[in-house]
Write a structure and sequence with these properties.
CATH architecture of chain A: Up-down Bundle
Number of strands of chain A: 0
Strand content of chain B: under 5%
Radius of gyration of chain A: 20 Å
Helix content of chain A: over 70%
Largest interface: A-B, 41 and 27 residues
Shape of chain B: rod-shaped
Largest sheet of chain B: none
Shape of chain A: globular
Oligomer: heterodimer
CATH topology of chain A: Four Helix Bundle (Hemerythrin (Met), subunit A)
Radius of gyration of chain B: 25 Å
Number of domains of chain B: 1
Distance between the termini of chain A: 39 Å
Number of helices of chain B: 2
Distance between the termini of chain B: 79 Å
Structural class of chain B: mainly alpha
Number of domains of chain A: 1
């Protein structure tokens, strides 16, 4: 417990966070690279073609991990917003704001790859269907959080406002997930996260899970890279940031 | 399965490969952009520190 508390305090301190992120970045980078390469190979080459959709279904290996990640990132963003609002932990708002841009990117990716899959299978690029519309709303939420944060000069005000929007927006997450059950949608139902277990062939399922885990490590990597920058910006006047330069000089 | 068959993706090549390409671009950009920014921040820091050192040294003389 003591070790855990110590770790928590270290992560909570910007200076310690900067140090820890430096050691974690290469790990997250290599793990995500290996998993994404392996998942791509298994998904594109090894997995069999779908009996209905032929080879086109292989878009699933980038579409579904992006869509899952777009929701996972939002959950992380909203929880850190809540922690920041309640306990005023310094790093929580950093995690919040540094998650918004990658979240928006993966939402956009899920929408575009979905569109590229929809055209050959449904015959349309876009449909105002519950799943698609709620995912589009998620994109607007991310953009709204970034815009709101940037509209204030005073950082604490910016953080609080963005955090409140983030917490309110969390209602969209269950709507996205259950949209394919609650409404009659063109989008297919869940094939992996089901109460009776995945309905996918294991040879198709494994690459998907590997890609999804790889994408999550990738998000960890981006979050660390962005949070490290944010910490330097916020602590620009502090002496420990100045010491970074000295260390950098020693290394090179 | 031969190579040309693999790239043809059963007639869905443009959809499958453009999805993959876009994903690759998004993944690459999201890692490169913050790294470039980090580099810039460190350079900015260096300039700032030098400027302050200069200021201090001129004050003393």
């Amino acid at each position: 417990m003591n070790v855990f508390l110590k770790f928590y305090h270290r992560l909570g301190s910007p200076r310690e966070f900067y140090k820890i992120s430096g050691t974690l970045i290469p790990w997250f980078g290599s793990i995500s690279l290996i998993l994404i390469l392996l998942g791509s190979y298994l998904g594109l080459v090894v997995a069999p073609a779908d009996y209905q959709q032929g080879e086109s279904y292989r878009i699933i290996y980038v579409h579904v991990p992006s869509a899952w990640l777009s929701m996972f990132i939002y959950a992380v963003l909203a929880v850190s917003a809540m922690i920041g609002l309640i306990w005023r932990m310094k790093m929580a708002f950093v995690v919040m704001i540094c998650s918004a841009a990658p979240g928006a990117w993966f939402t956009l990716l899920a929408l575009i790859t979905g569109s590229l899959w929809g055209k050959p299978m449904w015959g349309t690029w876009w449909e105002w269907d519950a799943r698609l519309t709620s995912e589009l709303l998620l994109l607007f939420l991310y953009i709204g959080i970034i815009a709101l944060y940037n509209s204030f000069d005073e950082r604490h005000l910016a953080e609080k406002s963005a955090a409140i929007l983030a917490v309110v927006g969390v209602v969209n997450l269950p709507i996205i997930h259950y949209s394919v059950e609650w409404w009659n949608t063109l989008h297919q139902g869940s094939t992996v996260i089901r109460s009776d277990g995945p309905s996918m062939d294991v040879r198709m399922l494994w690459p998907l899970l590997i890609m999804a885990v790889g994408f999550n490590f990738y998000y960890g990597l981006v979050l660390l890279l962005r949070a490290r920058n944010q910490v330097v910006i916020q602590e620009f006047r502090n002496s420990w940031v100045r010491e970074l330069l000295v260390n950098k000089g020693e290394r090179s | 399965m031969n190579v040309s068959e693999f790239f043809a993706m059963g007639g869905y090549a443009e959809y499958v490969w453009s999805s993959w390409l876009l994903t690759l671009l998004v993944l690459a950009w999201n890692v490169l952009a913050p790294q470039r920014k980090h580099q810039k921040l460190l350079e900015q820091l260096e300039v700032q520190t030098k400027r302050e050192q200069l200021k201090n040294s001129t004050h003393k003389t």
